[in-house]
Amino acid sequence: MTIPEIVSKYRGEKSLREFASDLSSKMAQPITHQTIKNWEDGLHRPDYYFILAIALQNEDWRREFALKILAILDPNNYAPDPSNINSQNS
User: What is the pLDDT of residues 39-56, one digit of tens each?
Assistant: First the structure.
């Protein structure tokens, strides 16, 4: 899955402004609807540290969203290790 696909999936039917407000509700600096649009259109990639902050400050869909983005931005640290997935399911 790509960053634009993840953003689109989590935004769903929400407006860009509503999604931006929801996503940054616990952040010191709000995110703009234009930033969300740029991510969704693939024009810019999210800032790693901003997404990390979302993951650390939330325990709901925002964390799940952030972890999926982090898996793309830094796959060595955030993508699941396939060998661990198989051993955990055994």
Answer: 999 999 999 999 999 999
Is the torsion defined by CA of 67, 19, 14, 38 positive or negative?
Answer: negative
Q: How far is CA 44 from CA 11, 26, 32, 40, 54, in A?
A: 17, 22, 13, 9, 18
The reported pTM is 0.84
Query: How is the chain split into domains, by residue range?
Result: 3-79
DSSP letter string over 40-83?
HTTSSPPPHHHHHHHHHH-SSHHHHHHHHHHHHH-HHHHS--HH
